[in-house]
Specification:
The structure is a homodimer. By secondary structure, chain A is mainly alpha-helical. Helices cover 73% and strands 4% of the residues of chain A. The termini of chain A are far apart. The N terminus and C terminus of chain A are likely disordered. The structure holds a DNA duplex.
DNA sequence: TTGATCAAACGTGTATACACGTTAGGATTC
DNA sequence: GAATCCTAACGTGTATACACGTTTGATCAA
């Protein structure tokens, strides 16, 4: 599908690799990102590392303080809630548009993605569910037929990844999530945009609300010393 | 307000300068951004220029093609409409939240900003109106009391600047815009979030719709040769 | 012992140098 | 005369070198 023959630029590859380490939690929020250290670790010079860090800083995953080095961005609980509120609104917009514009093919794809989530739920496999859930939501983004909106949604979704991931461990979360998905699919297929928007807004916001509880532990993780 | 003592990094300053040249139209969409040329023009080396371009590329104002140089991003008409749709939704969200959360002080500030627009309208000064309009909208962003949302709105607003600017030249646009502002202020102060959201959504979307007409001329500007 | 001051090491920010892909121009061939 | 191939110049991508601010450790004074 992605027929780009080669990234061809080290900066891009490094950007993805470092982002991977951030979202998987290998690099914790607040961790220093020493340019020389990273350069040595990846076997390249500082130049492409710097360029990768600048990109990640623009994306909000890294915080660069002048002359004082870069660190993995620490998102305080309050801001995290704000971000989830915006995410909820973006997804609501996607759902509203999707209800009006989704094609027959896309309906099939959406139902397939939904079905796949069911399998992961039944297998009680949070990691699988995490990925399949992401694919499910992307189907809705695409069905909005607004490419820019879809990009924004994907971008913010990525940024929230490390925090979202914890959610699925909550008891019964997968089952509740799946049943919410069902209602959303029904509303979209029925062409009821307002209902679909309202449902998915709640679906996302509940995660933000629950974070009010979880953030404490996250904060503990990111600042062990103090 | 912004108590940052000094940007201290050339990359940042160059980023702003180049962005300025893009949004003011000095650098037209599609224009090549030769690193050596820019470096010579600003009297610096290629390194900070590259870093500035990477930031601008992340922001979407510049398009970097591997090994083939950077150009000012060309936004095709279709995508521009998509961006205005998202902008409308972001502003609607700001207005909805603002109606619930705005403080007495912020109401005063909002009315002041609105009043300032009136002066520019009466003076029939589109350039002044352009800036005051921006300040007016920012008051609403801030009143949403969602810092992340406000940042996103400001960011997208900046990106749409070069295209938005043309709008005010349209006959009677300033008068219509001002009267729409009035209704929006009333709805927010009255605490009617849904009405405020609906009004501002229309206020923004009408710009996107009108662009369907204007884009032809924009396209002509950006690609004189063919 | 604790506090402040200073100096050296460290790391970022910028400049320069080099390598490779891209592109444009000219020569050659059909 | 037009198209293609080759070649050389150009510009990007990466590496290296250097300058300056920041930080840290030690020394000295109270």
């Amino acid at each position: 599908m992605d027929h780009a023959p080669a990234p061809l630029r080290l900066s891009e590859q490094l950007c993805e690799k470092i982002e991977e380490q951030i979202v998987t939690g290998l690099l914790r929020p607040g961790a220093r990102l020493d340019e020389q250290e990273l350069a040595a670790a990846f076997g390249v010079s500082r130049t492409p590392i710097r360029e990768a860090l600048i990109q990640l800083a623009s994306a909000g995953l890294v915080d660069m303080r002048p002359r004082r080095g870069a660190v993995v961005a620490e998102i305080e609980p309050h801001r995290l809630c704000e971000m989830f509120d915006v995410m909820a609104e973006l997804e609501a917009m996607c759902a509203r548009l999707a209800a009006r514009r989704i094609s027959e093919q896309e309906i099939v794809a959406l139902r397939d993605a939904h079905q796949a989530c069911e399998s992961a739920r039944d297998a009680d496999n949070p990691d699988a569910y995490y990925w399949l859930n992401e694919l499910f939501h992307r189907q809705i983004y695409m069905a909005s037929h607004n490419g820019f909106l879809a990009e924004q949604a994907i971008s913010l979704h990525r940024r929230l990844r490390p925090y979202r991931r914890l959610q699925l461990r909550v008891r019964n979360r997968m089952k509740v999530s799946y049943s919410e998905h069902q209602s959303i699919v029904d509303a979209i297929v029925a062409g009821d945009g307002e209902r679909a928007a309202e449902l998915i807004r709640g679906h996302i916001q509940v995660q933000g609300e629950r974070f009010t509880d979880l953030v404490a532990s996250v904060r503990q993780l990111s600042s062990p010393a103090a």
